[in-house]
Amino acid sequence: MRRKKEATDLKERNGRRATRQSVSLKELAGHLGLSPTSLSLVLNESPAAGSIPQETKDRIFAAAREFGYRPNFLARSLRAQRTYTLGVLVPELSDGYSAMVLSGIEDHLLQEGYFYFVASHRHDLEVLDQYQTLLFERRVEGLIAVDTPCDDHWPLPVVTVSGHEEMDGVTNIALDHERAASLALEYLLKLGHRQIAIIKGQDFSSDTEVRWQAIREVAGRLGLELCMDLVAQLEGNLPSPELGYVAAQKLLAANKSFTALFAFNDVSAIGAIRAFHEAGHRVPDTISVVGFDDVYGAAFHNPALTTVRQPLWQMGKLAAETLLRRIADGPATPHTKLLTVEPELIVRQSTRLVPAN
């Protein structure tokens, strides 16, 4: 009876203060008959809470939800001399690649109780330098750089997604590009394609040169001759199919016959398909198209896009996991320089056998 009355009183006090603040830790502890220290350990998921029975933890979390308790984050940060905040740098927020990586990062950080600042630099090195300074001034504990150049003077742990430079303090998460090139070119050769056009990425993309070298090496191993007249490069920093559209027009203007295209990403592949259709070609009847990334829209384009899938969500999650582990381990602990993830070929309707003459 007494416990029921205490709960009622607590709810009434909490209701009166709903517009100001939630129930205090001390009040919640009094209701549960536990010490504020025990509640703090459990609610902040401290390692020291390991000795507290799971049944007690469940009671604490249930009461916190019932009475709307919110931990005092500022007090926690001041006690621990930490901000529990990370910085995330991306080239562009609106393109499918960055959005999918960011989704994996966000899902893991929310689960672990971390906040993050995200900034898009649009490949402007001056803006990128300013953002790095601003993030450091806001006392982020580490940085995730997505398809973003890094230098070796950042004083905090850094994890890159699609980074390829080995630097002190940096862990790179990168796709196996040789395997990716093998999946695409071997598949096209199996379909009978030997005149294959290539769309390269922009100069500023961290994957452009690595992937191009992989394509060249795999083509040589397969005995596939690449015609440089059938290699076009994306130009401009818009995350738009227009760049692929323009690149495909250049390939068509070369007046060299080709039956397949391997594009740098899905967005450029979609733009290229539009250019091919306008020029009187049908995809995949006269030209097969393979994209890269497997962004959300790839499966819903017409025709649905065959593509080399990067596990973008998983790469983002792995980046967040790796950075939090490095923060917990401390700067003196050696860290992994490179984590490699594997691609997968996703076959849809934009590719087919070379038509018999």
What is the gist of this entry?
The protein is of the alpha/beta class. The chain has helices spanning 2-16, 25-32, 36-43, 54-67, 73-80, 96-112, 125-137, 177-190, 208-222, 242-253, 266-278, 312-329; strands at 85-90, 115-120, 143-146, 158-161, 170-175, 196-200, 231-233, 260-262, 288-293, 306-309, 338-341, 344-346. It folds into three domains: 2-79, lambda repressor-like DNA-binding domains (434 Repressor (Amino-terminal Domain), Orthogonal Bundle), CATH 1.10.260.40; 82-176 and 312-341, Response regulator (Rossmann fold, 3-Layer(aba) Sandwich), CATH 3.40.50; 177-310, Response regulator (Rossmann fold).
Written overview of the protein:
- This protein has 357 residues and is an alpha/beta fold.
- Helix content is 43%, strand content 15%.
- The protein has 3 domains: 2-79, 434 Repressor (Amino-terminal Domain); 82-176 and 312-341, 3-Layer(aba) Sandwich (Rossmann fold); 177-310, Rossmann fold, CATH 3.40.50.
- It has a 6-stranded parallel sheet with strand order 2-1-3-4-5-11, with helices on both faces.
- Helix 6 packs across helix 12 (312-329), helix 8 crosses helix 9 (208-222) and helix 10 packs across helix 11 (266-278).
- It is elongated, with a radius of gyration of 26 Å.
